[in-house]
Specification:
single chain, 681 residues, alpha/beta, Rossmann fold, binds iron/sulfur cluster, molybdopterin cofactor binding, iron, oxidoreductase
Length: 681
């Protein structure tokens, strides 16, 4: 048995794995005791990765219009279609939709190809569904996309506030660290979530906030802290700028947040008594038509009370995916250039110069939901989807399917032979999966770790960066895409971070730009920016961070046709659209089917029986689920999991239901708050 140190395929905790390779496609999985993210711990998903590495169900060769093809023919066709589309309709008629499952090296090459050579900003990622609102909040508050915390802060805090996060299920190893810290030193845990989740069950206080009540709640808490004299005036004066009228404009109350006066009082007392406080927020905050404002309401509280930059303090956005952060670093979001740069003339010129770009883009591209609208109405004619399943995962998935159906050229790079999205593709390209890829990922605390190959590539599968490089070469850009290996791609990216560093941003990997192939192979996990102690300057015009005035959005009138609120989320033992976890028999035991969770009073009102079938309908679509009647739901609200697809379930596909409504700043969809109705089948 040979042991290979690598990183888990799933969530943004980014646990290290010591993989004992025992055969051609078999592996014994253990936590890597030397990895700072998990110190040997793993959750159920990571532990059972070995059950998901079989070649069964893999896409093993290129496919064109349903027939097996060779790489040469497939890549010639992709290149010819790209070229014709750009020449005939311009660069903005093409788009890439990529994924937090890509390694940073893949992401870097995709971004360089689109923004520096095709000449469009139209590359976006499924991370848009995950933490784009937190990115926008960081940019507004700090002048850059930086998470100012580390996992050790969760252990050093006296109070951990979890907002919109079922941490025990969705980031289980972090939850273990938080719980161990509580047992060791008596820290307190508050959960702010409309649902009484498994995490909320174990909290010292559960604040069952109304859907999208977070801005009202955090504004009200901050107003109360100010009244109690707990604002850090010295820190504010030195490090933070506030817009005029900020303190008078803190709108919101416990009542408007749907929280009782007693629970609100308990929350404020806990916050007031524990200056060493981390607020960790996740999809429940980000996936909202007001996700950016929520991130800033949280960050406002930390900046105003000086609870940032000190051990055990800070606002901490936790990402869902294994490499959401790495994608952000290299410009995987349509509204960022590589290395956390924006689109000013100076930034565009420097990036063009660094890449020796053929045709630099001129500004931001279309964000995910807008991108699929543009595919639907024919403005985008060539779409290349990599390592993601938008036919299931985007909101209003029925509309997305229509868009995919209409797209003139749909290319899908996939590891799996049969996916909901792949069924629409004209050209399918076989990509490497976890256990075969070689590169880096960055976890939620900015820690870069190596994902290393355990097995040889199955069939004709290739790495995503290599596939794109071969297309670029066919388009005449071979010199700019001529890397020998993923180490060479990483070195180029690391050198490029000089453009961020010279602007005073934290992202700086220039000390890695000269790594040899061997040093890259052996590279130990490292955290860019380190522990980020108290900062003297932020990369803003005056060097100060910003308080951002945010106000609750007025609730729209309830449509009698859709009197309920639908919330979607995850199960503990499944991942995204189950293309990997669906192969594990052990993981399937946790939940065998998607369940709609309904409050007992609503079950009585709508004549619904526990374990019966219901149809849930929203203005976007209908889906069918078995019912679980539970008082962990607030009355008037329904929860369904998002994992099931046409391929694995048929009718229980949750993302037919949410609308295309997005946060106006971040473009992140509001999956957590859709008007709905329910009826027994
Ligand atoms: Fe993998 Fe996340 Fe579980 Fe760690 S907590 S083992 S990264 S799924």
């Amino acid at each position: 048995m040979r042991t290979v140190r690598t990183t888990c395929a799933y969530c943004g905790v980014g646990c290290g794995i010591a993989a004992g390779v025992t055969g051609e496609r078999s592996v014994q999985i253990k936590g890597d005791g030397a990895h700072p993210a998990n110190a040997g711990k793993l959750c159920s998903k990571g532990t059972h990765l070995g059950e998901t590495v079989s070649p069964e169900g893999r896409l093993l060769h290129p496919v064109i219009a349903g027939r097996t093809a060779g790489w040469g023919e497939a890549l010639d066709l992709v290149s010819a279609r790209l070229k014709a589309c750009i020449e005939e309709h311009g660069p903005d008629s093409v788009a890439f939709y990529v994924s937090g499952q890509l390694l940073t090296e893949d992401y870097y090459v995709a971004n360089k190809l689109m923004k520096g050579f095709i000449g469009s900003g139209n590359i976006d990622t499924n991370s848009r569904l995950c933490m784009a609102s937190a990115v926008a909040a960081h940019n507004r508050a700090f002048g850059e996309d930086v998470v100012p915390c580390s996992y050790t802060d969760l252990e050093e805090a006296d109070l951990v506030v979890l907002v919109g996060s079922n941490t025990a299920w969705c980031h289980p190893v972090l939850w273990q660290r938080i719980e161990e810290s509580r047992a060791r030193r008596g820290s307190k845990i508050v959960v702010i979530d409309p649902r009484r989740t498994e995490t909320a069950e174990q909290a010292d206080l559960h604040v069952a906030v109304a859907p999208d009540g977070d801005v009202a709640l955090f504004n009200a808490v901050l107003r109360e802290l100010k009244a109690r004299g707990l604002v850090d005036e010295a820190y504010l004066a030195q490090h933070v700028a506030a817009p005029e009228g900020f303190w008078d404009g803190l709108e919101g109350s416990a009542e408007s947040a749907g929280v009782s006066p007693e629970v609100f009082e308990q929350l404020v007392d806990l916050v007031a008594a524990h200056p060493k406080m981390v607020t960790m927020f996740s999809m429940g905050a980000n996936q909202s038509a007001q996700g950016t404002d929520k991130g800033n309401a949280i960050t406002n509280l930390h900046l105003a009370t000086g609870r940032i930059g000190l051990p055990g303090t800070g606002p901490f956005s936790i990402t869902g995916q294994p490499n959401a952060m790495g994608g952000r670093e290299v410009g995987g979001l349509a509204n960022m250039l590589a290395c956390h740069l924006g689109f000013s003339g100076e930034e565009l010129a420097e990036v063009a110069d660094f890449w020796a770009a053929e045709r630099i883009c001129t500004g931001p591209g279309l964000k995910a939901v807008e991108m699929f609208r543009a595919v639907h109405d024919g403005r985008i004619k060539f779409l290349w989807v990599m390592a993601t399943n938008p036919a299931v995962s985007l909101p209003d998935a029925g509309f997305v399917r229509e868009a995919l159906e209409r797209c003139e050229t749909l290319v899908v790079s996939e590891a799996i032979a049969d996916t909901d999205t792949g069924r629409f593709a004209e050209i399918l390209l076989p990509a490497l999966a976890w256990g075969e890829k070689d590169g880096t990922v960055t976890n939620s605390e900015r820690r870069v770790s190596r994902q290393r190959a355990l097995f040889a590539a199955p069939g004709q599968a290739k790495s995503d960066w290599k596939i794109m490089s071969e297309v670029a070469a066919r388009l005449g850009w071979g010199d700019a895409f001529a890397w020998a290996n993923s180490a060479a791609v990483f070195r180029e990216y690391a050198a490029m971070t000089a453009l961020a560093a010279k602007r005073g941003k934290v992202l700086d990997l220039t000390d890695k730009a000269g790594l040899s192939d061997e040093e890259y192979e052996d590279m130990a996990p490292f955290q860019w920016g380190g522990a980020l102690p108290l900062r003297e300057r932020y990369p803003t015009a005056d060097g100060k961070a910003r308080l951002i005035a945010v106000a609750p959005i007025a609730a729209s009138a309830v449509d009698p046709a859709f009197p309920l609120i639908l919330n979607t989320g995850r199960y503990r033992d499944q991942w995204h659209t189950m293309t990997r976890t669906g192969w594990s028999p052990t993981l399937a035991q946790h939940r065998r089917e998607p369940l709609a969770e309904v409050h007992p009073a609503d079950a009585a009102l709508y004549d619904i029986a526990d374990a019966g079938l219901v149809k849930i309908t929203t203005p976007s679509g209908t889906a069918t689920f078995r019912v679980k009647v539970t008082d962990s739901q607030r009355r008037g609200e329904v929860f369904v999991p998002m994992h099931w697809t046409d391929v694995n379930a048929g009718e229980g596909r949750a993302n037919r239901l949410p609308s295309q409504r997005v946060d106006p700043v971040s473009g992140q969809p509001g999956f957590k708050n859709s008007p709905a109705r329910i009826e027994a089948v």
